[in-house]
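Exercise: predict the fold of this chain.
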Amino acid sequence: MAVKKPKKKGLKYWITKMDNYFHRYIRLRDTNEEGYGQCYTCDVPLEFKKTQAGHFINRSLKATRWDERNVKVQCARCNNWMEGRQFEFSLKLGMKLAKGLLSRSTMEWKKSEDEYAVLVAYWKDKCEKEEAKKTW
């Protein structure tokens, strides 16, 4: 009888898992221990459940999609309705970092399922460490 190999989950599965942990980590990182922060681009106060992980360089470019320097807490207005307010985002990042991220965003990003699994575990661990700092 032939031994079946476990079915691979597919890259979409791993990308979704990584997005979930990474975005939660950003939201946890950018809020205080009580779960409050402010939008990176418009400074409006936000409670954790209303925060979003806003990207300076569009997340369709995988080389910077999970780069912590490229993602900050934003309100829904800035992130969704104002397309991330990229100009304001770049001003706050500074020219050197903005140019660096822009340059990096064009690099090729190819990972295997095993590499994604390692990255998912990494972001899950970072989430758990940030959650432990919260009092809510």
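Check your answer against the key: Residues 113-132 form the longest helix (20 residues).
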